[in-house]
Amino acid sequence: MTLDVDAGELAARTFASPREAAVVALMAAGIVKASSGSVLIGDYDPRVQSVHCKRIAGFVPHEPMALDERDFGAYVAYRAALWNVDARAAFAHATALRAALGDMHEAFAFPIIGALIASPELIVLDRPVPAYAERILRVADRRAVFSTHTNVAAARAFRGSGALRASRA
User: Fold this and answer.
1) Can you tell me the distance from the alpha carbon of 165 to that of 54, in angstroms, rounded to the nearest whole number?
2) Minimal CA–CA distance to 139: which of 84, 71, 92, 93?
3) Top-level CATH class of 10-168?
4) Where are the domains of the chain?
5) What is the pTM (predicted TM-score) of this model?
């Protein structure tokens, strides 16, 4: 499979199983390394330069987080420290993202906010909730977005600006 996603472009792929979708999403974010072939994130190979890849690609897992609004400040501080981002700037950015996500449940909003704290160039979404597509794409702004899905209807929800290429892998 070859996939090129440029800044401001949206790409969604459907897979036969949640496992396949998750593995491809993890590979696209540089978290799981390919045992054959090659994966490049930007100009970096995750097998050699994994830290660079993780700074370029913000990963949003499928599973909701077991945190609630009371944990927001601590979570943002943790993510800011993880990526060596100024804590006050990170909190202001996270607060603006939280407002832009509207009434999205925090269990789904926090992973998106956490992925965006370091201002990555690419957002990788593992089987995101289709009902939140518009809000997710709004906060992704002009970043490249890659999402995995297990059905075409869910992938279609991420059409956004019409730049989406939905296909079956």
Assistant:
1) 24
2) 93
3) alpha beta
4) 10-168
5) 0.85
